[in-house]
Amino acid sequence: MSGTARWLTPPMTDHRAITDAVAGPIVDRRAGKAWWIAFLASLAVVLAGAAAAGLSFEYGPGLWGNNSAVVWGFPISSYVWWIGIGNAGTLISAMLLLTRQKWRSSINRFAETMTIFAVAIAGIYPILHLGRPMYFYWMAPYPSTMHIWPQWRSALVWDFWSILSYLLFSILFFYLGLIPDLATLRDRPGSRRWRRIWGAAALGWQGTPAQWRTHTRLQWTMAAIATPLVCSVHSIVGLDFAASIMPGWIESIFPPYFVVGAFFSGFAVVVLMAMVIRRALDLEGMIRPSHLDAMAKVILASACVMGLSYTTEWLSALWTGEASSLRFLRFSFTGPYLPFQILMLIGNVFLPQLFWSPKLRRNPIALAVIAFGILIGMYLERVQILTNSLSIGWLPAMWTLYVPTIIDFLILAGALSFWVLLVLVTARVLPLVSIYEVRALAEEAKE
Amino acid sequence: MTALVIASYAGERAFRAGFEAARQSGRRIVGLWSPMPVELDGIGAAEARPIGWIAAAGGLILAGLFYLFIWWSATSLYSFDIGGRPLNSWQVFPLAPVEFGALAAGAAGIVAFLVLGRLTRLHDSAFDIAEVERASSDRFVIAVACDAGADANRLLALLAEAGAAHSRVVTP
């Protein structure tokens, strides 16, 4: 099979069938048992996480594993991990659009959805980490009689503006793509109340040639803006570390290495989502094994770049011979965090090498195992960036290890479940696959 | 008396054939609706052309203003001396404006899209045409004005011949 037909199989080549398959479960069907089980289970964990966050507000960050040396623990690791995942959706969507990848149609919407929720969750962590979260608005410039003002030379202020801009931009980009599909939901017989909501959100979309042209032109324009924006956002997160003087952080490779890591972990989430969505929503005709195969190839390439980045970091330390860098390297490979370092390398570099096998690229179990392995590996990487440097900083008298507490784990689990909960709710009210783009692909397949 | 001939097509190719037939017949095409992007000659090109420029202008202007704001606040409004570092640290000032400028460009583009695409008209008269409802699902629709009677019948036949799945004449 070649060309456009690889990405769609009958009956998903017919406009009516495409509309029914994606819009039908939202408008016509009630949520099934599996949805409710997933919803209630996630809600329970979210409540546990919220309780842990509430305790942290009440008693302060002393409940976490952070200590006077490792001042950035799980909250900042989680922030970097989530923002990485959150970077990928818009990047995937925009880059695949700009490079005219036909297989984008079936995956871009849920990739963008996961981005928005991941970035929103990422934004919560620095606020939690402040210790006095009610003052987070001090990061924004506002007329202040106390002369509290953002320090424009600080990487943390750059972070604030980049994350805020990126989140809002991603919402606009997501909403723009959604408008024609909201009109589809509006025009489908069903609940009057929901049709009114979708109708208002569709902004009176009719699908005239002028509307389509302006829509397409703006999508391309936004994709062209989004690609460098995404790269800059995670580069700025990389600068949070690289702009410091800590051994292990002061690395010029950090910004690009963070961007690749983001792309890599984001694709792992997209693969997992694709496998769940195609089964749960019965969309196997439009999210095909070819899609999984294409994504696995991207993951494989990214894993190789990750391996190259790690090697470059280690070899730089060896070549320079700088004492603090060598101590950092020795500590990473012989210190108490070694098992995590090994797990990280397995998840991020070695496990994805299995994707050299075309069979494994299409095997759901292999895909799920490798994608989970990457997510765990990337989380461990984010944790170790902090712990390996901060545990053995410039003052030997302060050297100490980091051990997360149950509160740290509960907040992490709560955030993960909150993301699942948001995706579950979205799947009930918005199409997770771009209907009009799949229709366009179907038309192309007919030719 | 003027009538309206409305024809629906199941696919893009037939829709294009119907559009060509209507255009060559010399009648006025009142409306075109499709469930996916279809470019028909230059229709809508004038509306779409300025989008990129408006987005770029919005982004550049707001990024510039933000840069000036940072410079003003850092050098005179709230000036901090941190270890003797220059107040006008212009090398790092562009970072936040670039990020904010990208957001401003996207927002300016969205506003331009709403205006040029004639959106936010929730109660447009086009929604009174039953076929338009299916244009968001699975039909490509064309509406052509003509004289009622024999002329309308000729046009109806012409559009049907181009491959219309359904067509009808509407008279006031």
Could you give the topology of this structure?
The complex is a heterodimer of chains A (447) and B (172).
Chain A: H1 15-27, H2 33-59, H3 74-98, H4 104-129, H5 155-186, H6 192-201, H7 209-242, H8 254-280, H9 289-320, H10 323-334, H11 338-350, H12 358-361, H13 364-390, H14 406-429, H15 435-446
Helix pairs in contact in A: 1-15, 2-14, 3-4, 3-7, 3-8, 3-13, 4-5, 4-8, 4-14, 5-6, 5-7, 7-8, 8-9, 8-13, 9-11, 11-13
Chain B: E1 2-9, H1 12-24, E2 28-33, H2 45-48, H3 51-77, H4 95-116, H5 130-134, E3 140-147, H6 150-161, E4 166-170
Antiparallel strand pairs in B: 1-3, 1-4, 2-3
Offer a quick outline of the entry.
The complex is a heterodimer of chains A (447) and B (172). Chain A has 447 residues and is an all-alpha fold. Chain A has 15 helices and no strands.
Structure description:
The complex is a heterodimer of chains A (447) and B (172). With 447 residues, chain A is mainly alpha-helical. Chain A has a single domain (3-446), classed as Formate dehydrogenase/DMSO reductase fold. Chain A contains 15 helices and no strands. In chain A, helix 5 (155-186) crosses helix 6, helix 5 packs antiparallel against helix 7 and helix 7 crosses helix 8 (254-280). The model of chain A has no long low-confidence stretch (mean pLDDT 90). Chain B is α+β, with helices and mostly antiparallel strands and 172 residues long. In chain B, 48% of the residues lie in helices and 16% in strands. Chain B has 6 helices and 4 strands. Chain B has a 4-stranded antiparallel beta sheet with strand order 2-3-1-4. In chain B, helix 1 packs antiparallel against helix 6 and helix 3 packs antiparallel against helix 4 (95-116). The longest helix of chain B is centred in the middle third of the chain and has 27 residues, at 51-77. Chain B is rod-shaped and about 85 Å long.
